[in-house]
Design goal:
Layout: H1 23-32, H2 40-75, H3 83-128, H4 132-136, H5 140-182, H6 184-231, H7 233-238, H8 242-294, H9 300-342, E1 365-372, E2 383-390, E3 395-399, H10 406-413, E4 421-426, E5 429-430, H11 436-440, E6 443-446, H12 457-462, H13 470-479, H14 483-488, H15 506-520, E7 524-528, H16 536-550, E8 554-558, E9 570-575, E10 578-583, H17 585-589, H18 595-608
The protein binds adenosine-5'-triphosphate (ATP).
C-alpha cells in the first residue's frame, strides 16, 4: 500500500538550513511582516508606546540628577527646588511609564497573535494543499513543528524582538547623546572600551547560534520519536518494545542535553563576559568621575546620572548581542516556513464548489500505456506500460503479488501522482483536462487502514458530504450495514470514536468509511483491500455493504482475497508493474500456467488447510 508518510530510509533529511545574516535572508524575513499589514496601526501604536516608555525610562536618571543636586545645594544652604517636588514629578513619570508599558505589551500581543494565527493558517493551508510526494518525503513531526515551534519563534521575533531592538536603539542613541552632554571626557573613556566588547560579543554570539541550532535539531529529533511512537502505540506494545523506544528516546534526549549544556557553557561565558564588561566599565567611569567631581567639572547628581545612563547603554549593547543570536534563530525558522510557503501546491480548490456540468463524469476510465516511478525513487520503475480500460459502472479487480503496484494504480487514479509516460483518461478526456478537485469530488477511496477523525461517528460519516442531513446520514449508514451497531451505542451517532477511531473495531471502522463513501455518492470508487483484515462473518457484512456501495459506479477493487472479486467484470493481474493477464474469472481460470490460476490455487490450498 502506498502510504502517504512513508519514509525512504528512516533518516531525517538535513533540511534545516543554516541561517546566515545575509541581505537575501533578511529580505525573506521582512516578507513575514506582510502578515502584520492588517494590524499595522495597532502595531505602529505599539511602536509608539515603546518609544514613549523608553523616553520615560531615560527621563529617570535626569530627575535623579536633579534630586541629588538639589539635596546637595540645599545642604550647602543654596536655593533649589525641593526634593519632595522632584520626587513628586518622578512619581508622575512613573505613572506614565506604567500606562505606556501596559499599552505596548497589549498592542504588540494583539497584533502579534493575530498575525501569527494568519501565518499559521496560511502555512497549514499550503501544507494541506501540497502534493502527496511532499508528505512522502517528510515526517509528520517535522511538519507539525514548522507550524508550532518555528512560527512561535517568528512571533517572538515580531513582537518581543522588534520591541527590544527598538527600545535598545532608543536607549543607545538617547543615552549616548545624554552622556556626551553630561561629560564628554567621561563619555570618551567609556567609548574607548566599547569596540572591544562589541567584537567579542559578536564572536560569542556566532558560536552560540551554531550550538543552539544543533540543540534545536536534536530536540526536534527526540520529539519526532515521541510522535511516532504515540501514533504507532499498538505496534510498540504488541512488540513489547517499550524498552527499545525508551532507550531510543533517552539516547536522543541525552544527545540533546549534552548539546544544550555545551551551549549553556558558552552562554554562561557570554553572560559573565558581558557582566564583567558592564561593571568593569562602571568602576572605571566612577573612579574617573570622582576625580572630575573633585575638579568641579561634573556635579554629584551628574555623575550618578552618567553612571545610570552608562548602565542603560551597556545593557542595551549586551542585549543587542543576544538579540543578534535570536535574530539568527528567527531567520532559520523563517527560512523553513518560507520554504513551505514558496513550494508549489497541487491545483486543488479550497472552496466547496459543486461539480460543474461540463466536468461531470460517466465513469469510463482508461490507463493508456502508463509508466510510473515515485518521484522520491525515480530509478525504480513501479508501473511499466500498464493499460486498463473500465466502462462506466464496471467493476475492475486488480490482483497480483505484494509490491506489484496495485496501490500505486489507486494513487494514480486519485491523481496523487502523475504518470511519467502514457495517459490516464476519464470519459476519454485526459485526466489533467479536468480540474483536480472536480475530479476527486467524483471519486471515493475506501482505504486499507481506515483513518477516522477524533470526533463523533456522525462527524466521521458526514466527512463524505459536509452538511448532509441526519436522514441522509442514517440512510448511508443503513446501506453500509452500520446503522445497527451505531444505534446500539448509548450515544448513537454522537458516539465519540476516540483518536483515530480506536474505540471501534476494524469492521466497524470500515463500515463507517463505507457509509462515508456512500454519502459522497461517487462516480468512481477505489477500494483498497477493504475486507482483508476481517473474519468471515464481518467480511460478509462488509462485503454486502461494499456491494451496495459499488452498485452503478465504476469500481476499482484492489484485492488479496480472490474469492471476493469473482464476479468482477474484469480482473487485471499485475506482476512487477506489468499487466500480465486480464479477463473475467472464468477466462483467467481457463489460462493454464496463468498467474491468476496459480494464485487462486494457492489461496484455495491455504484456506482449506
Ligand atoms: N511513496 C512511495 N515512494 C517510493 N516508493 C513507493 C512508494 N509507495 C510505494 N512504493 C513502492 O512501489 C512498489 C509498489 O507498491 P504498491 O503499494 O503499489 O504495491 P501493492 O501491489 O499495492 O502491494 P501490497 O499488496 O503489498 O499492498 C513497492 O515496491 C513499494 O515499495
Amino acid at each position: 500500500m502506498a502510504r502517504g508518510n512513508r519514509q525512504d530510509n528512516g533518516v531525517r533529511k538535513p533540511d534545516m538550513p543554516k541561517a546566515k545574516l545575509t541581505k537575501e535572508n533578511l529580505k525573506e524575513a521582512i516578507l513575514i511582516f506582510s502578515y502584520l499589514k492588517p494590524y499595522r496601526w495597532t502595531f505602529v501604536s505599539g511602536l509608539l508606546f515603546i518609544a514613549l516608555s523608553s523616553g520615560t525610562t531615560m527621563a529617570f536618571p535626569f530627575f535623579l540628577k536633579k534630586l541629588i543636586d538639589s539635596a546637595h545645594s540645599l545642604s550647602l544652604g543654596k536655593d533649589a527646588v525641593s526634593p519632595g517636588t522632584i520626587a513628586f514629578w518622578m512619581l508622575g513619570i512613573l505613572s506614565l511609564q506604567m500606562i505606556f508599558s501596559f499599552m505596548r505589551v497589549y498592542l504588540f500581543t494583539y497584533a502579534g497573535e493575530h498575525a501569527l494565527a494568519d501565518m499559521r493558517k496560511e502555512v497549514y493551508r499550503k501544507m494541506i494543499m501540497m502534493p502527496m510526494n511532499f508528505f512522502a518525503q517528510r515526517r509528520v513531526g517535522e511538519l507539525s513543528s514548522r507550524i508550532s515551534a518555528d512560527l512561535s519563534q517568528i512571533q517572538d521575533a515580531v513582537t518581543g524582538m522588534l520591541a527590544e531592538i527598538l527600545r535598545g536603539l532608543l536607549t543607545l542613541i538617547i543615552g549616548m547623546v545624554l552622556i556626551f552632554v553630561l561629560s564628554p571626557k567621561l563619555a570618551g573613556l567609556m567609548l574607548s572600551v566599547l569596540p572591544v566588547i562589541v567584537v567579542v560579543g559578536v564572536l560569542f554570539g556566532k558560536r552560540i547560534r551554531k550550538l543552539s541550532r544543533n540543540t534545536q535539531d536534536q530536540l526536534a529529533d527526540s520529539n519526532t520519536i515521541v510522535q511516532e511512537t504515540l501514533q504507532g502505540i499498538s505496534n510498540v506494545k504488541s512488540f513489547t518494545n517499550e524498552w527499545y523506544e525508551i532507550g531510543r528516546y533517552t539516547r536522543s534526549l541525552q544527545d540533546a542535553v549534552k548539546m544544550a549544556i555545551n551551549n549553556g557553557r558558552f552562554r554562561g561565558l557570554f553572560v559573565s563576559f558581558i557582566l564583567m564588561s558592564i561593571f568593569g566599565t562602571i568602576i572605571l567611569v566612577v573612579w574617573y568621575g570622582t576625580t572630575l567631581v573633585q575638579h568641579g567639572t561634573i556635579t554629584f547628581g551628574g555623575l550618578t546620572a552618567f553612571v545610570v545612563y552608562t548602565a542603560f547603554v551597556g545593557g542595551s549593547m549586551a542585549g543587542f548581542a543576544d538579540l543578534y543570536s535570536q535574530l539568527q534563530k528567527t531567520l532559520g525558522a523563517t527560512q523553513r516556513v518560507r520554504e513551505i510557503l514558496k513550494d508549489e501546491t497541487e491545483p486543488v480548490t479550497i472552496v466547496d464548489e459543486p461539480v460543474e456540468e461540463k466536468n461531470k463524469l460517466q465513469g469510463a476510465v482508461t490507463f493508456h500505456h502508463v509508466a510510473f516511478s515515485y518521484p522520491s525513487r525515480k530509478e525504480v520503475h513501479i508501473l511499466k506500460d500498464v493499460s486498463i480500460t473500465a466502462a462506466p459502472g464496471e467493476q475492475i479487480a486488480i490482483v497480483g503479488p505484494s509490491g506489484a503496484g496495485k496501490s500505486t494504480i489507486a494513487a494514480l487514479l486519485l491523481r496523487f501522482y502523475q504518470p511519467d509516460e502514457g495517459q490516464l483518461l476519464f470519459d476519454g478526456k485526459p485526466a489533467d483536462s479536468i480540474p483536480l478537485s472536480q475530479l476527486r469530488k467524483q471519486m471515493a477511496l475506501v482505504p486499507q487502514d481506515v483513518m477516522l477523525f477524533g470526533g463523533t461517528i456522525k462527524e466521521n460519516i458526514t466527512y463524505g458530504k459536509p452538511g448532509a442531513t441526519q436522514a441522509e446520514i442514517e440512510d448511508a449508514a443503513r446501506k453500509a450495514n452500520a446503522h445497527d451497531f451505531i444505534t446500539s451505542f448509548p450515544e448513537g451517532y454522537e458516539t465519540i470514536v476516540g483518536e483515530r477511531g480506536i474505540k471501534l473495531s476494524g469492521g466497524q471502522r470500515q463500515r463507517i468509511a463505507i457509509a462515508r463513501a456512500i454519502l459522497k455518492d461517487p462516480v468512481i470508487l477505489v477500494l483498497d483491500e477493504a475486507t482483508s483484515s476481517l473474519d468471515s462473518a464481518s467480511e460478509s457484512i462488509v462485503q454486502e455493504a461494499l456491494d451496495n456501495l459499488m452498485k452503478n459506479r465504476t469500481s476499482f477493487v484492489i484485492a488479496h482475497r480472490l474469492s471476493t472479486i469473482r464476479n468482477a467484470d474484469k480482473i487485471v493481474v499485475l506482476d512487477q508493474g506489468h499487466v500480465v493477464e486480464s479477463g473475467t474469472h472464468q477466462q483467467l481460470l481457463a489460462q493454464e500456467d496463468g498467474l491468476y490460476k496459480s494464485l487462486t490455487k494457492l489461496q484455495l490450498e491455504f484456506t482449506s488447510e
